[in-house]
Amino acid sequence: MDSVLILSALFLLLFCGIPVGLSLTAVGTLLFLFKGIPLAGIPEDFLGSFNSFILLAVPIFLLTSNILLRAGVAKDLFDAVQRWVGSIRGGVAVSTILSCGIFAAISGSSVAVAAMIGTVAIPEMTRRGYDQRFVMGTLAAGATLGILIPPSIPLIVYASVTEQSTASMFLAGVGPGLLLIAAFVAYCVVKSFLGGAPVTETGDETEQRKSLLRVSLKAFPTMLIAITMIGGIYAGIFTPTESAAVGLIMTLVYVFTFRDSFGFAELRGAVFQSGATTANLLLIIGGANVFGKAILLYRIPFEISTWITDNIASAGVFILVVVLLLVVLGLFLEGIAMILIVLPVLLPALGVHGIDPVWFGIFFVLMIELALITPPVGMNLFVIQSVAKSDLSEVIYGVIPYAVIMMAMVALIYAFPMIVLYIPFFG
């Protein structure tokens, strides 16, 4: 009964529009108060959750992505990828997915990927005569790769909560990330031949005359940053936090040396925007820490874990229940909040069913990806709608096939867990 009342109070505040971090802090504080525990320790619990070397990577990744966004590197990257694959039917759609995947290896943020690639790809696909729903869906879904392909901010938060190796979590995302890119590309090709793309694409002839070497060289710095960050982690040269710092330094050198459009005014804007996003994220993390300690006093994780053990006999049924839970929560909560609210409750049950926490992290992030394109609060839907100045229903209809592909990927990694676990543990 305590569990139901506490969760009901939390979701009531969320549905009233109170920010997630404040809702978590308020409910946690009330729970301490009802137990008669002094409230003097709450500020220490709140601020103590930020004292993490792992979380230091989050603002650095955000700053890197914001700098690249303001420097306008998306067009160089998109042009290069398009020149490589543009000869096939639906080549611009394929280029969009591949560009999203490449930029995801730098930013760690799905919203940043959507904003950056969307500003370039949407006008190009529209000008060439692509189906509007196909355009919107491809951008919204492709941008979700930003939180699966390492580096990933949700994976950093997951690693912090579960005390897993961030490097292992990043490497675990490589296999499913590449497989999801391949699945999205395959759908783009099939959809293009079914009428989603024109038979003969007619783009800007000036752009068509650009040499492959020229556009590839312009995109090379962005590719080099991505390869250095991921390759350094895989080779054990530096930690994920150090990888973020290396990527930021390389980005600053690149934009100030080779991008005339980027100056200190743009850098100041990138710093302010990254700071605001980081502050919002840390508010959620701090509130979740207070809430998490409070529910431990009421033995809620233990009670739910016991109920799962007594009533759910197999790992498959447990995963199915979690899928349904996350689909529902994804309608109302953003990804980090889902991790911080749900994970402490589910974590004790993983050992009972023999579920690897690294595998579960990738599964969880795939479900968060689905939440990003699920109305009414799917962030990617609104970013793409804003960039394209389109009707929201067009974006929603466009992402439905990609949502089906994501659910199929969840089933696939459940049937073949080595897709997730091979690289971090055996690669």
From TrEMBL:
Q: Which GO terms describe its molecular function?
A: transmembrane transporter activity
Which family does the similarity line name?
Answer: Belongs to the TRAP transporter large permease family.
Described function: Part of the tripartite ATP-independent periplasmic (TRAP) transport system.
The listed locations are: Cell inner membrane
This chain belongs to the protein called TRAP transporter large permease protein
- Species in which this protein is naturally found: Marinibacterium profundimaris
Write out the GO cellular component annotations: plasma membrane
Whether Membrane counts among this entry's keywords is yes
